[in-house]
Design a protein that fits this description.
This protein is 10% helix and 34% strand. Strands 9-10-15-11-16-17-18-19-20 form a nine-stranded mixed β-sheet, with helices on both faces. Strands 21, 23, 24, 26, 29 and 31 form a six-stranded antiparallel β-sheet that branches.
C-alpha cells in the first residue's frame, strides 16, 4: 500500500502474485494495481493510499528486478500511470514501485538493523582547516531579480520562464567571477496548502519560488566577491515527465541561455536589467555552476555541452560558448545517465538522510570519472551526516518556504535513530543550510579562485571548516595529483578476497546482496540489472591475519607520491576495523606501509551509508625498504581486527596540490530514438540513431536490451567522430495482426577517452493494426449459489499479444444486488484488495474490476464470478458487468447480467 515520502522510503518487499491468465483463477494483480485502456492506450496503474510529493528521484515500476519504465504522476499525487507498450500482462509479476532505490508501494516495516547506539553515533569532529571559506567576506551585497521573455525548448510544449534572482557584491572592482545556481524538481504551483506540478500555473495558483531558495549561499559568495544568480526552472519541472533523460538536456539549455545573456551584458552593460547594472561586471571565464537534485544533473550536462555541443535537434541554445566552467557543485544530485564530465572539477554533496534521491546516486560523479580522461580534475564527494534533501533550499523547508514544504525523510510511525528530527545525528534546517553554504564556498575558492588551501576540505584530507559546525562533513576524492591506481574496474586479480560486481542480481557476484539492510551509493543501479566494468574488492574475515592481495595486470608507478590513499567501505555503525597496508614491486620487494582504521557511518536500513572513507598511509616505509615505487605490482590488505567486512573501491598514489584541469580531446556519443510503423508485410531493418562528435578516439560500453525480457547484452565499442563504431540494427517484420508497440532500447556509458550526452535511445516500433472487437456470450449467467457465473469473451481476429477484457460493476436497481458475502472472499481480495466485511453491494467496492485476457493467437477465453453457498434464505440476486475501455471516463460497452439463485 502507499507510503508517503519526500520521494521514496526504503521498504521491505512482500510477496505479490502474478497476473492471472484467467479471472477464474486465484491469482491477479496486487491490490492498488490495475490495467486500464485498450489497444495502444493500455496502461499499468498504481494508486498510493497517501499522496507522493513531487520529487527529484524518478518513480519507476519494476517487475521483480526488471525495470518496466517511469510512470507519469497524476496531479492528485496518488495515481501513477505507465504505458505498457509491448509488455505482456503475464510478465507483470512481483510488481514494485521504487524511487531513488527505495520502495514506495508497501506500508511500514520493522528495521532490520539492530537498534544499538553505534549505528546512530556521530563521527568525532575533525581537526580544523587553517582556511575557513564559510567566513563572510568584506563586501556588502545587493539583491534583485530579472524576468526575460520565456523560451521554447525542444520536446516541451509550453514555454519555459527566464527568471532569476541576483545577489552581487557592492564596491568590488574589476570583473568578478560568476556563480549560477539551478534548483531541482519540486512542485511548480501552489494555492493555499495545495501544491501541484502543473505548468503553466492554473488560475488562482502562484509559481513556487524555488529559485529563491539559495539566498544564504548567494549572499556568502557575494560577500566574498562573486556575482551570483539563481535561475527558475518551473517550466521544465512541470513538463520533464515526458523527457527520456528526465529533463537534463533542457536544464542544460536553460543554464546556457542565461549564461549567454550574462555574456551579452558583460560586453554591453547598458543592455542589462537594473539589478545586473548595479552589480560588478561578470567575468565569464570564471564560472561556477551549482545544481541541486535534478538541477545537479542539469549543470553537469551544461558543463559537458559547453565543451562539446549536443545534437542541435535536442538543444535549446544555438549560440557560441562565451564562458568557461571552472567547476560544479552538485547537491543531492540525480545522474540518471551516469555520465559525469571527467574534465570539469566537481564537488558532490551527499545528504546522509536524503529521503528523495535516497540512493545517493550522485556518488557516480566521483566514481564514474575514474580512468575516463586525464584524471587531473578533482572530483570530490562530501557526505553530510544528518542532512536531508530539501533543506538545502529554504523554499523547500517548512517554516521558511512561501509554498507548502516538508521534511523529505519520512519514517512513518517508526522513529529512525539516525534521521528522525531530534536524533543526535540529525541536523536542523539552519545547521544544514550553513554547512551547505560553507562547502559551496569552499568549492568556489578551490575551483574558481585557485586557492589550494581550501582543497583539504574537499579531497579526503579529513579536515573541517569550523563555520559548518556542528555538521559532520566527511570527504573523499579522486583526480587532482593522484596517480598509479589500483582500480578493481580494470584488469586486476584478487587472492584471499573476492572481486565483486557493483550491480548484479546474483548474490554470490554482487558486492552488496539485495537482502542487506541499507544501501551503498557506490553500487547504485543504472539502466540494467547487471553491469560490466563496475567492481570492488570484497573482504570478509572471521580472524585477523589473512591478507587479501590485489594484483594489477601491469605495474603502476607511485613515484613522486607522498602517500597511498585508499577508499574503503565498512558496514554502517561498525567501529575499529583495522587493516595493515603493504605494497610490493614487480621484483617482489615488499614493505608494510602502516595500519589504517576505518569506522562506519551512522546508518540504518533507510540510509545509503555503505560509503567509502578515505584513509592514507605514507610511502616512506617503501622507500626505506628499497621498493621500486616506479613499478608497484601488488597491494596487500591484512585485517587486524577479529572479524569484519570491508570493500576496497580503489587505491592511489597521493600528493598535495590541485593542477589546472585542462579538457582532453574526447569523443562524444549521443543516442537518439527512431519511431517507425510496423507495416503489413515484409521485413525492414532500421538502425538506432547514433551521433559521434567531439575530438579523438574513445571507448564506450554499449548495452542492447531485449524488448521482451529486458535483459541486456553488452560490448565495448571504439568510437571516433566521422567514423563508424556503434551500429545497432533492428529488424521489424510487418503483419496485419494487432500487437502492442515494441521498444528496442539501447544504452551507452563512457569507458575511456569519451563522454556521453544522451545515454539512452533506440527504435520504437508502433503497431498499425486495429484492435480486435470483443463480443460476449453467456455460458452460465443464471446459476445456483456456490457455482460460478461465466461468459465467453471472443475476439473478431487473433492478436499477437494478450487482449484484456476489463469489466466494471454497475449498480442493480429494482432487485437485490450480489454482495461481498455472496462471492468467493479470495476472488474479492484478489480483484479489489477488499474483505467481505462489512457486507456491501459489489458495485460500491472501489477498485473492483472483473477481467480476463485472451492469449496471443487465440480467439476466446472465459470470465467468471465465483459465488459461495450460505445458509441464508434469500431471493435471487444479480450483478451487472459492463465491458469497459479501462479508463475512468464514460463507458459505452455492452452490459451483461448474471443472476444467482438461492440454493435452499
Amino acid at each position: 500500500m502507499g507510503a508517503p515520502t519526500g520521494a521514496a522510503q526504503a521498504q521491505q518487499t512482500h510477496g505479490q502474485r502474478p497476473l492471472a491468465a484467467s479471472a477464474d483463477t486465484d491469482d491477479t494483480l496486487p491490490p492498488r494495481w490495475r490495467i486500464t485502456g485498450e489497444g495502444t492506450r493500455r496502461q499499468l496503474v498504481w494508486r498510493s493510499d497517501a499522496r507522493v510529493p513531487m520529487g527529484n528521484a524518478r518513480v519507476e515500476f519494476y517487475a521483480g528486478d526488471r525495470l518496466l519504465g517511469a510512470p507519469r504522476a497524476a496531479q492528485d499525487g496518488h495515481t501513477f500511470r505507465l504505458a505498457l507498450g509491448h509488455a505482456r500482462p503475464d510478465s507483470l509479476t512481483h510488481l514494485e514501485v521504487r524511487a531513488g532505490g527505495r520502495r514506495l508501494d508497501t506500508r511500514g516495516r520493522i528495521s532490520r538493523i539492530p537498534a544499538d547506539d553505534s549505528a546512530g553515533r556521530a563521527p568525532a569532529a575533525l581537526p580544523a582547516n587553517p582556511v575557513d571559506p564559510g567566513t563572510p567576506g568584506r563586501y556588502r551585497t545587493v539583491t534583485g531579480e530579472y524576468t526575460l521573455p520565456s523560451v521554447r525548448l525542444p520536446g516541451f510544449r509550453a514555454p519555459v520562464e527566464m527568471k532569476a534572482v541576483v545577489v552581487a557584491p557592492t564596491g568590488a572592482s574589476g570583473h568578478r567571477p560568476l556563480a549560477l545556481f539551478l534548483h531541482g524538481r519540486h512542485s511548480t504551483c501552489y494555492a493555499g496548502n495545495e501544491a501541484t506540478g502543473a505548468w503553466p500555473c492554473p488560475a488562482g495558483a502562484r509559481p513556487v519560488p524555488s529559485y529563491r531558495g539559495y539566498l544564504r549561499d548567494q549572499k556568502l559568495l557575494a560577500s566574498q566577491g562573486y556575482v551570483t544568480v539563481s535561475v527558475s526552472a518551473n517550466g521544465i519541472n512541470g513538463q520533464d515527465f515526458a523527457a527520456e533523460d528526465g529533463g537534463a538536456q533542457a536544464r542544460s539549455s536553460l543554464v546556457r541561455l542565461h549564461l549567454a545573456r550574462w555574456a551579452d551584458w558583460a560586453a554591453r552593460p547598458g543592455t542589462a536589467p537594473a539589478v545586473v547594472r548595479r552589480a560588478p561586471r561578470a567575468d565569464l571565464s570564471r564560472v561556477l555552476l551549482v545544481g541541486h537534485s535534478r538541477g545537479g544533473e542539469g549543470v553537469n550536462r551544461a558543463a559537458m555541452d559547453s565543451l562539446d555541443a549536443p545534437p542541435a535537434g535536442q538543444d535549446g541554445y544555438r549560440g557560441p560558448v562565451r564562458w568557461r566552467i571552472r567547476g560544479t557543485v552538485l547537491i543531492g544530485p540525480t545522474i540518471f545517465g551516469q555520465n559525469p564530465v571527467a574534465d570539469v572539477p566537481s564537488a558532490t554533496i551527499l545528504p546522509g538522510c536524503d529521503g528523495d534521491v535516497s540512493d545517493l546516486q550522485g556518488e557516480v560523479y566521483v566514481d564514474g570519472t575514474r580512468g575516463v580522461s586525464r584524471g587531473t580534475a578533482l572530483h570530490s564527494a562530501l557526505y553530510v551526516v544528518g542532512a536531508d534533501h530539501n533543506f538545502f533550499n529554504s523554499e523547500w523547508t517548512p517554516g521558511q518556504a512561501q509554498a507548502p514544504a516538508e521534511d523529505d525523510f519520512f519514517t512513518g510511525d517508526q522513529r529512525d535513530r539516525v534521521c528522525s528530527p531530534g536524533s543526535a545525528t540529525r541536523l536542523t534546517a539552519a545547521q544544514q543550510q550553513q554547512a551547505g553554504a560553507t562547502y559551496i564556498a569552499a568549492a568556489a575558492r578551490l575551483f574558481v579562485a585557485g586557492d589550494d588551501r581550501a582543497r583539504p576540505l574537499l579531497d579526503g584530507s579529513n579536515l573541517r571548516a569550523p563555520s559548518a559546525d556542528p555538521a559532520r562533513v566527511l570527504t573523499h576524492a579522486v583526480g587532482a595529483r593522484r596517480t598509479g591506481t589500483f582500480l578493481p574496474d580494470t584488469s586486476v586479480t584478487v587472492h584471499g578476497g573476492r572481486l565483486c560486481a557493483a550491480v548484479d542480481p546474483a548474490p554470490a557476484t554482487a558486492c552488496l546482496d539485495s537482502s542487506t539492510p541499507g544501501a551503498s551509493p557506490h553500487f547504485v543501479r543504472w539502466e540494467t540489472d547487471k553491469e560490466a566494468g563496475r567492481r570492488a574488492v570484497a573482504l570478509t574475515w572471521s580472524a585477523a591475519g589473512a591478507a587479501v592481495r590485489v594484483r594489477n595486470a601491469r605495474p603502476v608507478s607511485l613515484e613522486g607520491a607522498k602517500a597511498l590513499s585508499l577508499r574503503v567501505i565498512v558496514p554502517p555503525g561498525s567501529t575499529g576495523t583495522q587493516l595493515d597496508v603493504a605494497v610490493a614491486d614487480a621484483s617482489g620487494h615488499r614493505a608494510t606501509l602502516g595500519r589504517v582504521r576505518v569506522d562506519g557511518l551512522p546508518g540504518t536500513d533507510r540510509t545509503a551509508s555503505y560509503w567509502a572513507r578515505e584513509v592514507r598511509v605514507p610511502l616512506t616505509a617503501a622507500a626505506r625498504a628499497g621498493v621500486d615505487l616506479r613499478r608497484i605490482g601488488t597491494l596487500d590488505l591484512t585485517p587486524r581486527s577479529r572479524s569484519g567486512r570491508a570493500w576496497l573501491m580503489d587505491a592511489w598514489g597521493w600528493r598535495p596540490g590541485t593542477p589546472e584541469a585542462r579538457p582532453a580531446a574526447l569523443a562524444r556519443v549521443d543516442l537518439g530514438r527512431l519511431t517507425v510503423k510496423e507495416g503489413n508485410s515484409g521485413t525492414r531493418t532500421y538502425h538506432v540513431p547514433v551521433r559521434v562528435s567531439g575530438h579523438g578516439s574513445g571507448q564506450v560500453r554499449l548495452y542492447v536490451a531485449d524488448p521482451v525480457t529486458g535483459r541486456a547484452t553488452t560490448r565495448l565499442v571504439t568510437v571516433r567522430p566521422g567514423a563508424g563504431g556503434i551500429d545497432v540494427p533492428v529488424k521489424v517484420t510487418g503483419n496485419t495482426r494487432f500487437g502492442y508497440g515494441v521498444e528496442h532500447d539501447v544504452f551507452v556509458k563512457a569507458v575511456r577517452g569519451s563522454v556521453v550526452g544522451s545515454h539512452r535511445g533506440g527504435v520504437t516500433v508502433e503497431n498499425d493494426d486495429p484492435m480486435p472487437r470483443i463480443t460476449l456470450t453467456p455460458l452460465a449467467d443464471k446459476v445456483t449459489e456456490g457455482q460460478s457465473l461465466k461468459w465467453r469473451v471472443t475476439l473478431s481476429a487473433p492478436a499477437d499479444t494478450h487482449i484484456p477484457a476489463v469489466f466494471g460493476v454497475l449498480p442493480v436497481s429494482g432487485s437485490p444486488e450480489l454482495s461481498t458475502k455472496d462471492v468467493d472472499p479470495r476472488w474479492l481480495l484478489d480483484n479489489s484488495g477488499q474483505a467481505p466485511d462489512p457486507e456491501r453491494p459489489l458495485s460500491r467496492i472501489e477498485q473492483l474490476s472483473v477481467w480476463t485476457q485472451v492469449p496471443p493467437g487465440q480467439l476466446s477465453t472465459e470470465v467468471a464470478v465465483p459465488t459461495i453457498r450460505d445458509a441464508v434464505a434469500e431471493s435471487a440476486e444479480s450483478v451487472h458487468l459492463q465491458l469497459t475501455d479501462g479508463t475512468d471516463g464514460p463507458q459505452t460497452g455492452p452490459v451483461v447480467t448474471g443472476t444467482v439463485l438461492d440454493a435452499s
